[in-house]
Amino acid sequence: MIFSNIEGRLREIRTFTRPTADGRGTITFRVFVIEMPFSRDTPIDAGKLLAVETIRKEYYLLLEVTDYFPQHYGMVNLDGSVPPELREEIMKRVEEKWESKESWIEVYASSVGYVMRVNGGVEFKRGYIPPLPGSKVKLFTDETFEKFVFYENGVKIGKVVNENIDLKLNIEKAIKYHIGVFAYTGSGKSNLTSMLIRKSLEKMKDLKVIVIDVSMEYGILLLDQLLTYESRLVTLDRLPDNQIDAGRRLLRTHVIPEELNEDRDLIRKAFETLYNQGKLRKLYIPPQGISFLTYGMLIDMVRSQTEDKYVATAQKPFFMMLLHELDRLMRENKLSKDDVVDEAVLHSLDEVEMKAREAGIKENATIFSFISAIKQYIELKPIESEEYDVENLAIELLDQDPASPRLFIVETPNMDDARLVISLLIDQVFMRRKRSYSSIPVVLFVLDEAQEFIPFESRQKDYSEYSSIAVEKLLRHGRKYHLHALISTQRLAYLNTNVLQQIHTYFVSTLPRPYDRQLISETFGISDSLVDRTLNFDIGQWLLISFKAALKEDIPIMFYADNNISELKENLLKILK
Q1: Distance between CA atoms of 190 and 488, rounded to whole angstroms?
Q2: More exposed terminus of the chain, fewer Cβ within 10 Å: N or C?
Q3: What are phi and psi of 105, to 5 degrees?
């Protein structure tokens, strides 16, 4: 059966227009008003899928319920102009006759951008065909809903609201096209993110995950995964000297969820085991910050010399010539501005230097000093050290050995350090993946409090400019190098908008600010009223919106996420028994 036995009628189609979230234009939505038979046991609820006949035979337009409320004929024109005694009498009669044929359920729905053809079989495809007002509106059965929306062999992450159906998504595809988790404080962002990480590690055997943890909570939320897999808990603090100190210090420095307050001894024991397994590392951050020169940086240096009023006019053509040589070198070797400058540039430097000497430029000229400085930089040998630094972290992250670490949690409560680490790490990983391309391992970068890494307005002095550029590069170009991102934040308004455009799967819970909700509505072209339902969500309840990624079809789904804490406790008891 495709449809249930509950049917309604399409009464009218309304349109309304509002300004876009940025105030630069307008956006128009259609609202479909449907009358359904009144019943106190009605299965109609927000998120249900409906189908209405269209002007084309055998084709149905698919709608999603955004809101509904009971209506009674006697209340339609009842307002303050009616005398109080008469109003009271009318309302008494209405109360007694809700089960009569004078009442109905008024349903508001929006198009999900799909039509369905029923001709022996069932076929779904994207599009819009105008529906027939007055025609029957039919409710999907649970089986049709599940078949239409979910992957049969998908990963279960929760239960669909108002449906007895497991939410199954294609976790590989969701990661490939990047994931965003957006909700206000206390909505369960960390629980959902941790659960997605553990499901991903279980499903994708060639996946590695690195979490940049500024809130000091993922070391607890993924503690069982740190113990189960070869992993690294990376900190900027001095490492403890023994397992007892490790257990006490890590227990003291981490945020412990309320549900685990009575399990502190279990957590301390787990941290001691983690120390004994040799999975703790102290991260060394070089004081010079950005530790290598890219072609983009070199080009900016050369260009600044051509614009410097103190550089002699006779030398500027040679700096222009150097720009030309760099352009030729990058074209021939298919290099980008993000590639690191190495010995390949020496020939170009020699060519410009020789031509400058032939032209009679003085020996102490800026052009010769500049070229000499670049050559000396290239000749610098890497410092050999036993310190675990960003380079070692990148090497382990890209290690193809199945026995290499799969989960990395980098704890950096200082935001300046966190931004510097993520910018250095992304650059290192890109550089190494470009030099030695491989489809494995797939790497997922997880950024909690993403507004700190990719702010709308960035600055150099706190490294936010570096981290914003690096994360934007990760989301723009990471897919072809099998590098992906999951970002989590409370406010979309504070994010770099270029980054938001690269994310195809959104998990949305309560967002009090209208701008944030409107931005999501506009991004996916879904009704404001559907996104506004998130204001009434309970902790752990989410709206999943995906564009050609996590779900079979791009239908907004409301669901309850599985509890990460329950699985964590169960696994810790098994591991440490």
Answers
A1: 8
A2: C
A3: -105, 120
What is the C-alpha to C-alpha distance for residues 222 and 571, in angstroms, rounded to an integer? Answer: 10
Run of H or E including 350: helix 346-358
Cβ-based neighbours of 362, under 8 Å, separated by 6 or more: none
What would the pLDDT profile of 115-169 be if each residue is shown by its tens digit? Answer: 888 887 788 888 899 999 999 999 988 888 887 788 778 888 988 887 778 888 8
- Residue identified by tokens 């006949």 is 53
Q: Which sequence spans correspond to the domains of the chain?
A: 3-149, 168-279+405-575, 295-379
Position 222 scores a pLDDT of: 93
* Contacts by 170-173, CB closer than 8 A, 24 or more apart: 170/549, 170/550, 170/551, 170/552, 171/196, 171/199, 171/200, 171/203, 171/204, 171/550, 172/203, 172/204, 173/549, 173/550
What average pLDDT score do residues 482-490 get? 91
Give me the helices (H) in 75-234, please: 84-96, 142-149, 171-176, 189-203, 218-221, 223-228
Around Cβ 94, how many Cβ atoms within 10 Å? 17
Q: 533 pLDDT exceeds 80?
A: yes
Contacts of residue 258, defined as CB under 8 A and 6 or more positions apart, other chains included, come to none
Q: What is the pTM of this model?
A: 0.81
CA gap 91, 22 in Å, rounded: 44
Q: Is 227 left (phi over 0), alpha (psi -120 to 50) or beta?
A: alpha
Contact yes or no for 68/46 (Cβ under 8 A): yes
Whole-number average pLDDT of the chain: 86
Query: Could you count the other beta carbons within 10 Å of the beta carbon of residue 373?
Result: 11
Which among 210, 118, 253, 227 is positioned nearest to 442, based on CA atoms? 210
Q: Is the pLDDT of residue 288 over 70?
A: no
Give the gyration radius of the chain's Cα atoms.
30
CA 559 vs CA 197, 209, 544: distances in Å: 18, 25, 8
Tell me whether the omega of the peptide bond preceding residue 441 falls within 30 degrees of 0, making it cis: yes
Instruction: Tell how strand 3-19 and strand 59-72 pair up.
Output: unpaired
pLDDT for residue 195 is more than 90: yes
Q: Cβ contacts of residue 23 below 8 Å, gap of 6+?
A: none
User: Where is 35: in which H helix or E strand?
Assistant: strand 26-37
CA distances from 463 to 309, 487, 500 (A): 29, 18, 20
- Mind giving me the DSSP string for 373-404? HHHHHHHPPPPP-SSEEHHHHHHHHH---TTS
Q: Are 65 and 109 in contact (CB under 8 A)?
A: yes
Q: Output the DSSP codes for 78-100.
A: --TTS-HHHHHHHHHHHHHTTTS
- Whether the CB-CB separation of 31 and 16 falls below 8 Å is answered with yes
C-beta of residue 126 within 8 angstroms of C-beta of residue 85: no
Q: What is the mean pLDDT of residues 398-407?
A: 92
Residue 71 CA: distances (Å) to CA of 75, 95, 101, 283, 507:
7, 11, 11, 64, 33
Q: How many whole angstroms separate alpha carbon 557 and alpha carbon 543? A: 6
